[in-house]
Write a structure and sequence with these properties.
By secondary structure, the chain is α/β, with parallel strands linked by helices. It has a single domain, classed as D-Maltodextrin-Binding Protein, domain 2. It is 48% helix and 15% strand. It has a 6-stranded mixed β-sheet, sandwiched between helices. Helix 2 runs parallel beside helix 4. The longest helix has 35 residues, at 25-59.
Amino acid sequence: MTPYEDKKFKDTLLEEKKKLKDMTFKNKMWYIWEYYKIPIIGVIVTVSLAVSIGSAVLNNRHETALSCVILNSQSDSQQDLVGEYFDPGFRQYIELPEEVEIDVDHTMSLSFDESEMNEFTYAEMAKLSAMITSKELDVMIAKEDSIDHFGQMGGFYDFKELLPPDVYDKVKDNLYLVTNQETGETAAYGLKLTDTDFLKKTGLRMKEPILSVLINSTHTDTALQLIRYVYGL
């Protein structure tokens, strides 16, 4: 039996309060995180899921042509070049009506290295998972580690099957292959963007960005139009 098990809950709270009272601010922060990080992370993940699901429900009230996330990027410009690239740039390219939305998020950061995982990355992963589960995400642009992570679970379309012949012939040298861990099959789950002007026009800094289309995307036609736009086809 632990010392806390034979005490009343009220006594435990008073004891914790007394400990914190005698600590410096820095030590208080360390103590709270060290002993309560699991419930803190739980609350962060729960809140993030609630916000993401609520946002998804709200967005369903408006017609959306495409939803895209750009992971682990940094902007080199004070201007919103990403916004300009997609809206009005891509909007004009596909002649999309003003009342239909294009949703692009380039603020998310993920890490799949356990030594770098913290409450922030857990929350970001929860948010992204909620978007994928609720079918609110169509396109992911990210570095190899992210594409590998979701591709190994079969989370993306195989471009050899998705792309029409005329597009496939022009981008086939840029295919990015990933092995599906469940089937053992290797598929073209990504398109490398290093030979395009995507980074230059968006003002983003990324190492070898790759574009993938989510397997449960509800806007694959628009995703294919985005590929034509990015490659100037």
